[in-house]
Specification:
homodimer, alpha+beta, OB fold (Dihydrolipoamide Acetyltransferase, E2P), BirA Bifunctional Protein, domain 2, 2 domains, 5-stranded mixed β-barrel, 14 strands, ATP binding (chains A, B), NA-bd_OB-fold (chains A, B)
Chain lengths: 497, 497
Amino acid sequence: MKKTEFPEKKVGEMGNTVGEFRKKLKIADIKGGPDEGLNRVGQTVVVMGWVRTLRVQSSVTFLEVNDGSSLSNMQCVMNSDAEGYDQVESGLIATGASIWVQGTLVASQGSKQKVELKVEKVVVVGKSDPSYPIQKKRVSREFLRTKAHLRPRTNTFGAVARVRNALAYATHKFFQENGFVWISSPIITASDCEGAGEQFCVTTLIPSSREAADSPVDAIPNTKNGLIDWSQDFFGKPAFLTVSGQLNAETYATALSDVYTFGPTFRAENSNTSRHLAEFWMIEPELAFADLDDDMACATAYLQYVVRHVLDNCKEDMEFFNTWIEKGVIDRLNVRAQFDVAEKDFVQLTYTDAIGLLLKAKKKFEFPVKWGCDLQSEHERYITEEAFKGCPEIKAFYMRQNDDGKTVAAMDMLVPRVGELIGGSQREERLDYLENRLDELKLSKESYWWYLDLRRYGSVPHAGFGLGFERLVQFATGIENIRDAIPFPRAPGSAEF
Amino acid sequence: MKKTEFPEKKVGEMGNTVGEFRKKLKIADIKGGPDEGLNRVGQTVVVMGWVRTLRVQSSVTFLEVNDGSSLSNMQCVMNSDAEGYDQVESGLIATGASIWVQGTLVASQGSKQKVELKVEKVVVVGKSDPSYPIQKKRVSREFLRTKAHLRPRTNTFGAVARVRNALAYATHKFFQENGFVWISSPIITASDCEGAGEQFCVTTLIPSSREAADSPVDAIPNTKNGLIDWSQDFFGKPAFLTVSGQLNAETYATALSDVYTFGPTFRAENSNTSRHLAEFWMIEPELAFADLDDDMACATAYLQYVVRHVLDNCKEDMEFFNTWIEKGVIDRLNVRAQFDVAEKDFVQLTYTDAIGLLLKAKKKFEFPVKWGCDLQSEHERYITEEAFKGCPEIKAFYMRQNDDGKTVAAMDMLVPRVGELIGGSQREERLDYLENRLDELKLSKESYWWYLDLRRYGSVPHAGFGLGFERLVQFATGIENIRDAIPFPRAPGSAEF
């Protein structure tokens, strides 16, 4: 590998203003303005990034350089008299190599960009081995999942990463601007929120990674009855990865009024589908002194806000998705973001009405429909895609019982392509009702002592919802498989990277 | 429990503007403006919150109500002719109860607030059982750790939650404003970043929570050799909780240029100290085309930014910490936030110089000092508190080797009270050097294949750091024990709530 030094030893310099510690320009800084870089024509600029393509013509060489700050490359035009041109001839400058290019910004002759870089000097920073798996030719998304460490260098996954980032930041902005406090709910927990979910066990009874592969079962500490001796485990009892931060968020909502979590949650379900992950990020707001109407209003306003943010801030990436991933995704999101049609856009449907709709449907379902059944994906899809949107789900213990004694104050928000995006409910704030529900479901009141305490001391009506962040990414980008909506997906048999 | 209905069934109403979906005013909205509420004098307002204290005098009753939106309570003044006054007499209105109060905002006679609420009507929403453990009398922070579900209702923990939230949001703002992309690094991983860290095992070989306590050891699947049969586990091999997202962040930095993680990380160390948690949040920025100087400049600018943000946005909470938790904390942070003294403020010290300083110290250390030793807490404390700030640490495999062949391009940022707040390094971007290091440390090159690929295809100089978020909370608030800096701390023997 050729040792190359940067022309300047120090790439960045400490700025004088907090928040501007680096003076380095990125391609998005150069080309991202309203005139797409024309204001900088004539300036000498430096670009650092990775070579996407190289076209050598008789008199001139075109290099497309990308630094990940935007979908757009910087087109670099080089004559044979440019300093470092020998690296083109020797093959060092090739797809995948990282380079440092200095040149003059000029108006471009091409139709694809307003400006391009007339190269004065180029330095290969790191060459690319010819085995580089992501060449210009199109590669499948299945193949790229096996190269999760390199796939962000493609247009699709670069754009997904930027839109995912924008959705995350918009999430924080929305809640912060509305007075919610971000809470980190615990990841490791000895309690089981849903009272049923399939959970991963977290333990130190099995030795750390290097020895784990060769661990004998009988080295696991056991009691004289042959049971696992949990007293010797790290937490002194069985512990698990959380399936939801909701119960913990409730403790803070009943102190700080409005809070939200945004963190990873886990399901050990053996579902190898395009809609499930074993590890995914959830957003769970919890509102005190609030009922189901407030909850739905919050979910609606939230979704409009983040969609609007992405449309305003990720124009180039969204046009890419609109062209290559899902035709019409921008129109679909635009309808969602129009706040003046908000009330029309979000049709609310009771559970009973949803069942009625499904019973009247001409369609034959795999799972038969009757009142009381849990809605399956096929039912949800029918309602959102062939009928319309909004309906509740089957009762978890914490959902507030309605006066009819049969239904609970819950809602689901179903959206096209994804199905259930948001599930929420008003929580049972009445101590006696909640205790009865725990008894009915044979859940231990002792293990929920702290959750019950919230109803014992200054209980308030409160409500919240959970939103699977990767499904939001799918919804906003049109990406079909949820494993392409998170950098390093975890699923049965798959914890690589 | 008395059944009370809200005077209005719907607490909130859908607003017309995205981002203003609720019209409910919180105490911070009423009292948080520059004139501390005087602009609203004469208005009828509703407050919903929890009773902190109740003083019944002969002619008038004072209620201090807090809704968690600020440290300040709303002082509510009630005569016996107010609607609902009977609830004072019957004892329903008591410390810990939740109430709905309507009244007229008037200028306050008291010196502690500019405005107070002249009560017209009060409704108890949820009474408080007399066993409420958080009464007015001061309770210890040790006791409150056993009541982690109720402690956010205290002044101290409400303030910690709000400052923690402000630090988190400032973190996102800083990186977003500087063009960094937030990356979610995986929580469950089959690789071990540090090559050594003590990790938690994640498994489904032990059944889910309800049955775990009674699981026999011999129900764990084993091979014919008596080893744990990992092929039957969820991921088909041993999997662990991450100790750092750095390696994963590097994959995205070498595609998108500048990225950061902000997520939970785990250490299964049996350390029952005031400085360690088994589960903590980390911020790990990674900068491409950057060296150690850029890294230090980024860490410096970041810390100044978030400290300034908290001083500007959490004035009341910071005054509380300054008075009750650490006298002088505001001055200490102000020095840190002055960007015009930035270069003077952060003294940089090489490892060799740090050792020199310690060798010259008059102090006797428990762990003897010599060149090559890892710095212990007592050494770090000496340097920051008795000498000054900044120094590097002992070599992890990914740290870039300096030309002296002895040291690596690493840095630690040490701060008073906390010790090591930030640890960072320039990463080894040279394939041959990195492979040699893996060999030296007897780490398997095969399991790092994807990490090595980053050096094979367009490698670039890059650098980053890790910051333990709870230590930042300690640094900013003066809170002594790290278990009080996170809502639900996890430590050996402790995974409650």
